[in-house]
Structures are given as C-alpha cells and as structure tokens.
Amino acid sequence: MTKFKASSIALDIGTRFIKLVELKKKKDSIMLTKIGIKEIPKDMKLDRDKITSQLISQLLSENNIKSKFVNISVSGQSVFVRFIKLLQIKEDKLKQTMKFEAQNQIPFSLNEVMWDWSLLNKDKNASKRAVIVAIKKNLVEEMILKLNSVKLSAELIDVAPVSIYNCMAFNEDFDDQNLGAILDIGAKSTNFIIFNRGSVWLRSFPIAGERIEEAKDQGIEELLAEIERSIEYYFMQAGEDAPKEKKIDRFFLTGGGSIMESMESAFVSKFNIKPQILDPFRKLRISKGVFQKLEASGPKTQFSTVIGAALRGITDLKIEVNFLKEMISEKKYSFQKRLYSGLSIAMGVLMLISFSVFVRQDYYTKKIKLDKVEGMIETYRTYEPKIKKIREEENILRWKMDALYQTASSRAVWLGIFKAISEMMPKDVWITDVSGIISIEKSGLGRMDMNGKALSYQSVNIFVSGLKALPSFSDVRPVSSSVENDKNTGEETVKFSITMDVVLAGS
Predict the structure, then answer these.
(1) Which domain holds residue 196?
(2) Among 38, 66, 243, 72, which residue's Cα sits nearest to residue 155?
(3) Taking a C-beta distance cutoff of 8 angstroms, is the pair 493, 486 a contact?
(4) 310-361 pLDDT, tens digit each
(5) What is the C-alpha separation between 411 and 417, in angstroms, rounded?
(6) How deeply is 461 buried, as exposed, middle or buried, from its count of CB atoms within 10 A (0-12, 13-18, 19+)?
(7) pTM confidence score
(8) How many CA atoms lie within 13 A of 258 on its CB side?
(9) Are residues 385 and 263 both part of a single domain?
(10) What does DSSP assign to residue 5?
(11) For a Cys staple, 219 with which of 63, 215, 224, 432, CB 3.0–4.6 Å?
C-alpha cells in the first residue's frame, strides 16, 4: 500500500510569475493551506536569476514556509517525451524492459540525461501503455543549483504538461471513454494534452500569450492553427488506437493566457465546441486564512501546474514521473553502503576478538584458501583488458546509432517543413529553388536556402513573416531581392532569396 505524505510544497517558476502552494492531507480530503504569487519584472537590464531568487525568498518568508523540500515542474519544451505500447509482460521484468525501451527511444546516451517512466493504464488484462520522459542532466543540475541558492532542495521534478493533466484528472469529473483535451496557454509556450481511455498524448509549441498579445487576432489564429495541426498529428500517430471520429469531445482551458479576450469565441468558431475553464481548486478544501489571498491572486487557471506538482506524494495520480528518482535511489544506495561499511567494521572487531579464542585453528588451511582467492583475482585481471576493449567498441556503436537515428528523424521533419511552408505561402509567391543542409549533430540544427519569385515586395514580406512564425525555423533572413521583367509578358516580378535555420525534432 502506498504511503502518502502529510503535506507537500510546490513551486512553479514561469516566465512572468512565480507561484507557490502548500497542500496538507486532512483525513479524506486535501486542504490548500498556503498560496503566493510574485510577478517577475520585464526589465531586460535586471539579472533575472538574482531577481527570481529574491522573489522565491520573499514567497517563503511571507508564507512562513519552514520546509526546505519542494516539488517543481519543467517546461514541456525542455523534455523529450515518448509514448510506447508494451506486450504482456511480467511485473518483475517491467523495469528491465523500460530501460531497454529508453535506450532505444531516447536519442541520447542515458548517461547524458535524467529519465523516468510511468504506466498509463494499470489494467492487468489489457496491453500496457507507458510514457518515457527524459531531460538533459545539465538542465536539472541548473534547477537544483538555483533552488540551493535559496536554501531549498528539490524533492521531485515533474513535467509541466503531466502536472496539468494530473491536476485536471484530480479536480474534474470527466468521461475517460471520450476524447478530451487540455490547452495550457503560458507566456512563451503552450502545452496541448489529449487523453482517452487512460492513454495520454502531449505536445508543446511556442505560440502562446506573448505572441497573442503582440499579434492580437492573428496570434489567436496562429494558436488555433497549431492546435488543429496537433490534433492531426495525434490521429496520425495514434493510428488504430484513436477514435474513429476525429473530434475532440471536451476541451479544458488553463494557464494565464486562457482568459484572454475572444479566446472562447474563437474556439467555438473554429472547433464548434465551447471550452471549459479548468478550476485547479475545485476539489480542494481551502483554509479560511487562504481564501481571501486566493481571490486576490489573479486568475485561478494560472495555478494548474503548481497544484498538479503539489498533489504528487499526497494522493494517487494518473501519471507519476520524477527526474530525481535515479538520484534519490543513488543516495539511498550510498546510505546503505555506509551502513554496511559500519557493520563490516563492527564485524571486523568481533572477528578479532573471536580470533583470540580460536587462535589454535589450522593456519595452513587458511593459507591454502587465501591462495585460491588470489588465483581467482589474478584470472580476473587477465580478462580486464578484454572487457575494457568491448566497452570501448560498445560506445563507438552507440555513437553511430545516435547519428543514424538523427538522420532518419530529420527525413520525416523535412516532409513536415515543406507541408507547413505550402500551407502558409501566399498565392502570388512561388519557390524556384530550395537547398538544405542537415546536421546529424545532437544539436539537431539544419540549414535551408530558398529562392523564389513574387508579384510584389509586400507578398515577399508576408511570406518572410509567416516563416518566422513557424516553430520549425529560426533566424529567418532575406538575403537579396530584385525586380525583373518577364521576357514573354513584360510583367514585373520580384526575385528573392531567403536563408534560415531549421530546428529539427529532438533539438
């Protein structure tokens, strides 16, 4: 039986705000006992890390938080996520199988990442589904150092979209047999979660609150187009497991950007469904001293991620991953090792005492046994160079596999890139020449050069703006443009060249 904690504290360090909550287990319910929010100044001249540390310290002080252990979540865009379907497998083989799957699914060496997994459905009679998540070790180390700077320690590091899904599943009554979706609109990124019959699918993209504030209606149109594209990706990847009718039955909106003006009406117009605002506090009890503070903290939807993270450890949740699981296991192993070392020393003392009692035992018998042990050690030493050589060959093969995986992945990406370009290209613009360079390095960056013609400079500018808005490109730059006359019709056309970086999957 799972042993739950009595209380839990979580931090959500976002782009614009830092949120803190404390939840406590009260018999058969969970109570919100502390809540706080601080806005991060937009002044680019300020040291963001320093300001963030100061604001976290203020939140801890104002809420009289004494515990040094917190749960946090990382952005979905920082995390590598894979969903897999497992054959019937025995419980004692599950961990070994998942490690094998992780080695095959994650495009990096497991030594370079922190990773974890969770079963999505626990029905023993059904085929098991699982999610594997991974993040580069240096990102986790940076987060731990930032928390240590304010005398905090991370007890759990979750994935933001997973925290949001857990928050929704805990607080909302929904029919898991129908296809549902959650749209979490943050400041710089949006998380899109689709769930159906215990199966979950996640995607994050960079069209979010700041883009919508900047581009107004066009920003909302870009967001809706990205949602539509995500739904198409889901049905394409789910295959036979997806519902026959390609329609979302229920939409939940959350995140600070979900309450923007015209968002609800745009949803109804685009998807013919009225979205439901997710209330992360719906099934929580709220202490009297916190209620007024909650009302003054702004939109409730901005607390979904931090509530989902705080629920970890004090109740059963749908998905439970923790990037620190391996690190915690290593600490436990280190403690056990020190314990066993102490016991070994104690045993050694007892043996010395016992030796004085049994000193008359046959010395030569012990000498023979010792010689046998030394012979076994010597045999092992002869095999040690061969083992070392095999390990070196294994590392070379892993590097080659990583390179081949990146190359294969990039092919699929180019198809998506050309489709995205064709969908947003103005009618009076056409491409005459495209060339690209694919990098197989783990940075996942490629390069594309494009030549084309248009009927006006305005069309070229619209095309360039559209390319910049696509998440597949960065550093989009027009290289040249000139006006030329068609030899046959005499009509003026604009000849142009554009160059850009291509952000490949897994970068």
Answers:
(1) 173-277
(2) 72
(3) yes
(4) 999 999 998 999 999 877 666 554 544 454 555 555 665 566 555 555 555 6
(5) 10
(6) middle
(7) 0.65
(8) 25
(9) no
(10) P
(11) 215
